Amino acid sequence: MQPVNWGILGAAKFARDHMARAIHEAEGARLAALATSDPARAEGFRAFCPDLRVHDSYQALLADPAIEVVYVPLPNHLHVEWTEKALRAGKHVLTEKPIAMSAGQIDGLIALRDATGLVAAEAYMIVHHPQWQRARQLVAEGAIGRILHADAAFSYDNRADPGNIRNRPETGGGSIPDIGVYAYGSVRWVTGAEPVSVRSRIHRENGVDVFAQVWAGMEGPGGRFTYGAMTSMRLPPRQEVVFQGEGGLIRMTGPFNAGLFAEAQLHMLRPGQPDHVERFPGARQYRNQVEAFCRSVRQGAAYPWRLEDARGTQAMIDMVFAGEIAG
């Protein structure tokens, strides 16, 4: 397969530390260009990709005829704008989550994707991790019976960094846009369920949510179940997801930042049976994501997280904000 040429809009730290390296290392991909107005920020990328071409503006990268795929790691409030511009420039585009700030904004992206025939997706990397793929398989097979309840927790503490884009309302900050996409979208993806009712308690600082507790009723192919979630940017680090069924439970450790927060593990506990543990120490979810996107571009392979999937999670985020109660 001819390598797919990728370009990155902006020299974000996350792009430098994770996605740029994944693109550079992935089979079937080539990290070809970066757009940044600050040459010094490009050096961190050139440290592992010395042949990288650097453009001094986003528009210049979009005009580069050699670039086939654009990766967009910009602040949240810029995602829709630059996804649209990339598609209109004839580029396939992979945009960081959340790809939009409301579900309605994604409708326009879906229409533009369909009109151009290009591949466009949200960079929801966990669906490319075998831990999550295994959880989805086990739930679909009925390994723990009909799901009765699920809960998710994701927290970290960035209060010491007030200038961080996650702490700024004008850049689409907050724990719900930043990590609620994981807590809500992961359970949707594993179970195929959607929320039918949502209530939430949200605490804010400087106009962004720093703690959110969510209670929801979910309905999917296996029927209805209850769901609870907690996200926070003001608590010690925690990541855990649990699916409870009639016949047991599945607990996932290190589910979101696999290998960084903790080793990705799947524990299945069923009464009267030995505890079952699966470990995934070498899985590379960012690289897997890049390779899956390249296969979609080159071979037309189905991509596991479509814009329609991203819209479903964003619709749930919208419901979380709309369902806020006092307290």
Overall description:
With 327 residues, this protein is of the alpha/beta class. It has two domains: 4-123, Rossmann fold (3-Layer(aba) Sandwich); 126-283, Dihydrodipicolinate Reductase, domain 2, CATH 3.30.360. It contains nine helices and 14 strands. The protein has helices spanning 13-25, 39-46, 58-62, 79-88, 103-116, 130-141, 175-191, 285-299, 307-322, and strands at residues 4-9, 29-35, 53-55, 69-72, 92-95, 120-122, 147-157, 194-205, 208-220, 223-232, 234-245, 248-253, 265-269, 276-279. A hairpin with a 6-residue loop joins strand 13 (265-269) and strand 14. Helix 1 packs across helix 8 (285-299) and helix 4 packs parallel to helix 5. The longest helix is centred in the middle third of the chain and has 17 residues, at 175-191. The protein is globular, with a radius of gyration of 20 Å.
Summarize the structure.
This protein has 327 residues and is α/β, with parallel strands linked by helices.
Main attributes of the structure:
9 helices, 327 residues, Rossmann fold, alpha/beta, Dihydrodipicolinate Reductase, domain 2
Low-confidence stretches: none
Residues in helix, %:
25-40%
In spatial order, strands of the major sheet run 8-9-10-7-11-12-13-14
CATH class of the largest domain: Alpha Beta
Major beta sheet, specifics? 8 strands, mixed
Strand content bin? 25-35%
Write the layout of secondary structure elements.
Elements: E1 4-9, H1 13-25, E2 29-35, H2 39-46, E3 53-55, H3 58-62, E4 69-72, H4 79-88, E5 92-95, H5 103-116, E6 120-122, H6 130-141, E7 147-157, H7 175-191, E8 194-205, E9 208-220, E10 223-232, E11 234-245, E12 248-253, E13 265-269, E14 276-279, H8 285-299, H9 307-322
Parallel strand pairs: 1-2, 1-4, 2-3, 4-5, 5-6, 7-10
Antiparallel strand pairs: 7-11, 8-9, 9-10, 11-12, 12-13, 13-14
Helix pairs in contact: 1-8, 4-5, 5-9, 6-7, 7-9
